[in-house]
Amino acid sequence: MSDFDHPLKKYFRNGINYKTCPGCGNGIISASILRAIDSSGKDFDSFAFVSGIGCSGWIPSPFYNTDVLHVTHGRAIAAATGLKLALPEINVMVIAGDGDTGAIGGNHLIHGARRNINITVITVNNRIYGMTGGQAAPTTPRFSPTSSSPFGTIERPFDLCRIVEAAGGTFVARWTTFHTRQLSATIRKALDHKGFSFIEVLSQCPVHYGKIEGMRGNAPAMMEQLRDNTYVWKPDTVKNDKIPVGIFVHEMGIPEMTSEIERLRIKAGYHE
Amino acid sequence: MIHINSEACKGCGICISMCPSNVLTFSDEFNSTGFRYPVVKNSDSCTGCGNCMVYCPDFAIVVKNDEE
Amino acid sequence: MGNLACAEGALAAGCQFYAGYPITPASEIMQHMSGRIFQEGGTFLQTEDEIAAMASVIGASWGGAKAMTATCGPGISLMQENIGLAVMTETPCVIVNVQRGGPSTGSTGLSSQGDLFQVKYGSQGDYPVIAIAPSSPQEMYEHTIWAFNKSEKYRTPVFVLSDRLVGHMSESVDFYLPEDINIENRKIREKYDGPGQEMFLSPEGVAPMPVFGRGLKAHVTGSSHYPDGSRNVADAELMDYIIKTLKNKIERSLKDISLTEKEYMEDAEIAVVSWGSTFRSCLSAVKDCRSMGLPAGSFRPVTVWPFPENEIREISEKVKTIIVCENNMGQLYHMVRSAALDKAKVVFLPPEKLGTLIKPARIVEKVREAL
User: What distance in Å separates the CA atoms of residue C149 and residue C253, rounded to the nearest whole number?
Assistant: First the structure.
């Protein structure tokens, strides 16, 4: 034990002590986010985090030492929209899980993308509802035995990135906890993107999802699996069975909502 | 070069598996919360790549490369 | 019309953010705001549903804006979870409910007063709200300004509990000059005072709000939390403190919040109690009674929540009968009955047909019956 400080400690309110399960991907994603912010040089006070209900909602709440708004399940993007419209100059980042974003919050996800509101949404996709005891999520692969599907899930899972792309998302990306460095670099790009940025991060839930894979408690094995079951997508890649990761959409020049609101004010005759 | 906060560790083993140079292994002792934590077994092999630091979910490892 | 007066009242109070979803009979508020608020430099957002409307109102309020939404009963039902969030996080906001016939999709073409309990008890758990019930377009204007002021002062959601009769009523409305309007603004925390700073649940007053974007490092959560915003979902002492403190924040300011109107009550033997749209028929009926020599009086809770328990108790000690007149199956009636504590007889009087305007003659007849 030595008297050193983790370089990211300055971003935490009261020391770093995530109460996550051993091996949970949350901490890796949190570090990726903070490294991206750190390297951007932007003042942490210029950030506001809005998080949902579920384990990933606990990434910024209550740990990050800046403005954090922890709302009801599924409504983070809606609350973030209101916050960004009232304070367009701050960087608004939403951190929520796959259930929060893709199930109960699905409607707000597609409308956020459609509006091209300038926020960055990080969806931690562990393909399960972890906090409530391992129930099936809309991202859980078919035939998975979960605590709410003892005979196996029968529904097909969502591809959240394709949904956001179809809804008009102008920055759409996916990485995994294995790809932590690429994730950080992509978050940097997303922060600079003037529009709705969506980054899905496949993550390990060693306790609940690990059980389905026969890897309960084995985070290293789950991360190796994330590495082996994904491939880095490029525009000319031939589709294969693995899950594509990378930046799928990075469209600039699409009207962004806060700028459009400003334009409407001028059109309505408002003078400051 | 590698500073390990053994008390913050939850024994997940990610650092050990992510190390490309086989530098780390699990300790024999437990920390106060009952987890085995990483200890350096091959310090000469360490390249300072920082994987252990970057992948630790508990921010329990710091790699400093500005030392001798 | 009443709805337009409401929107103008909001703008006069300094509303800078409107989010809403179309619903009969409240859509006129949204439509009027969709043009006017831009003229005032604000933001209008038509959301994908009422849930998003309430969520974005909360987000905007934490961004420093005076924020509101307007809807009807079905929309309030959808907003309930986030109404609870606004109460728990002490977020100033105004919610207008232009009630219509229910239940469910109900009768869009008819009015009702079926949401009295919904605005107070519709979300989970025990919590206080403030609700004011206008009875005219003029009051739609004035009460909306009042609602913003109280929501800012007490960091709480405030309901403007209107209905179709009042929302779609057309009468002339006097607007005030800006210099004649009393505007209250939330107290904002001046500086960051470290992780333990008080941001919520002040035991004596209202904690200054750590509005976002000012380096105040606010932590806002709907989970049970300490005054510094940190979470603890397992501490009974804390939960007890939270529920009682939120309640006391409103209750200890009853003098400031509770508005009532009395007419002809000094020597009344029969009290006619009404709120919102039924008030006008009741006052008219009481005047008719008096001209016939019948000792009736009118009592109106202008603010229906918090309910003026003490005043009802005082009345119950002086009168023989209290007639509660409302356009539903009995909601304020139950509150009056329990406050009257059997000291006076309490009688419920809805319109002959629910959803319609109650005729003063019907009220006069009931007064006669009671004597």
Answer: 14
Task: Give the residues across from C271 on adjacent strands.
Answer: C297, C322
Q: Which CATH number fits domain C261-370: 1.10.10.1100, 3.40.50.920, 2.60.200.30, 3.40.50.720?
A: 3.40.50.920
- By Cβ distance, the residue of B13, B54, B62 closest to A4 is B62
- Domain membership of residue A199 as a residue range: 19-268
Please give the pLDDT value at position C311: 96
Contact between chains at C221 and A270 (C-beta distance less than 8 A): no
CA C258 – CA C84 distance, rounded (Å): 22
Query: Is the CB of residue C55 less than 8 Å away from at least one CB of chain A?
Result: yes
Average confidence (pLDDT) over A214-227 = 97
- Whether residues B57 and A220 touch (CB distance < 8 A) is answered with no
- Residue A102 is part of a domain; what is its CATH number? 3.40.50.970
Residue A237 CB-density burial (10 A; 0-12 exposed, 13-18 middle, 19+ buried): exposed
Contacts of A223 in chain B (CB under 8 A): 14, 17-18
Amino acid, res. A126: N
* Chain A residue with Cα closest to C91: A69
Name the residue of chain C whose CA is nearest to A257's CA: C45
Per the CB < 8 Å rule, is A68 touching C230?
no
> Chains meeting A at 3+ CB pairs closer than 8 A?
B, C
Beta strands A171-176 and A67-70 are unpaired
CA dihedral C101, C2, C149, C325 (to 10 degrees): -50
- Please report the pLDDT score of residue C219 as a whole number: 97
A67·C213 Cβ contact <8 A: yes
H or E element at residue C321: strand C321-325
Pairing of strands C303-305, C296-301: unpaired
Angle at C202 between CA C196 and CA C207, to 5 degrees: 80
Q: Look up the CATH architecture of domain C2-180.
A: 3-Layer(aba) Sandwich (3.40)
Residue A14 lies in a domain: no
Contact assessment for residue C134 and residue C199, using Cβ atoms and an 8 Å cutoff: no
pLDDT at residue C276 in the model: 96
What SS3 class is residue B63?
strand
The domain containing residue B44 runs over which residues? 2-63
Extract the tokens encoding A144: 């998975």
pLDDT in tens, C87-143: 999 999 999 999 999 899 999 999 999 999 999 999 999 999 999 999 999 999 999
The total domain count for chain B is 1
Of C61, C81, C231, the CB nearest to A72: C81
pTM for the model stands at 0.97
Cβ distance A86 to C215 less than 8 Å, yes or no, reads: no
* Chains touching B (3+ CB pairs < 8 Å): A
ipTM metric: 0.96
Report the distance separating Cα C194 and Cα C217, nearest Å.
9
Tell me: pLDDT of B68 over 60.
no
- φ, ψ (nearest 5 deg) of residue C270: -120, 125
CATH number at residue B33: 3.30.70.20
Question: Exposed, middle or buried, C320 (CB in 10 Å: 0-12/13-18/19+)?
Answer: middle
Query: Does this chain's domain C2-180 share its CATH topology with C261-370?
Result: yes
